[in-house]
Amino acid sequence: METIKIRFLDGLLTFDDSSVQFNADNPNLPRIQSINLKDVGTLNYSNYIFLKRMPIQYGLRFGLGGILIIIASIILGYALDKGSLMSIGVTVGIIMEFFGIFLVLGDLIIDGLFGGSLIIGICESIWGEKGFEVNINHNSGNQGICFYTALDEESKIKKAIKALETSVKGFSKSESEATQHKRSHETPKESTNTLKDLEKLAELKDKGIITEQEFELKKKQILNL
Question: What is the pLDDT of residues 27-48, one digit of tens each?
Answer without folding.
Answer: 778 899 999 988 888 999 999 9
